[in-house]
Specification:
single chain, mainly alpha, 5 helices, WH_DNA-bd_sf
Length: about 140
């Protein structure tokens, strides 16, 4: 025998609809909004960008951002106290790579950041260095 099923006196409230993919909560700007990205970059053309790739390291030259910088540029300067790649900056700020390169171009022109090539390591170690290490270990 199965137990009787209970019915609710008041119907259950329907859960609110989940937000659509890519939409921001009310009162917040969507970071991928094309209008917002256009304002961030000032409508800069693609030819106005510095030659940066995803692995270029960026280091801030100043300890604190100047008061006249945009909020995104201030956040970028605070992030880059230690060297970060352009890809990491893009991920941390949740901005597309192209927008980050435009912001970095402005900061490079103002000499607030410094761009460094990534450190390339040799595939094969120097033989003389390996021999020196081996002899040093044998002397121990």
């Amino acid at each position: 025998m199965t137990p009787p099923q209970r019915r609710r006196r008041y119907p259950k409230e329907e859960p609110p609809e989940p937000p659509k993919a890519g939409s921001a909560p009310e009162g917040q700007d969507d970071p991928r909004d094309p209008g917002r990205l256009y304002v961030l970059t000032g409508g800069a053309a693609s030819g106005d960008r510095a030659a940066l790739d995803l692995v270029t390291l960026i280091v801030a030259r100043a300890d604190a951002p100047p008061p006249a910088t945009q909020p995104e540029q201030s956040a970028l300067l605070r992030l880059c106290k230690a060297p970060l790649s352009v890809a990491e900056i893009s991920a941390y700020l949740n901005l597309p790579f192209s927008v980050v390169t435009v912001l970095l171009t402005e900061l490079l022109a103002a000499e607030l950041v410094q761009a460094r090539a990534p450190i390339v390591r040799q595939a094969i170690a120097d033989r003389s260095l390996l021999e020196a290490v081996m002899h040093g270990l044998q002397k121990l």
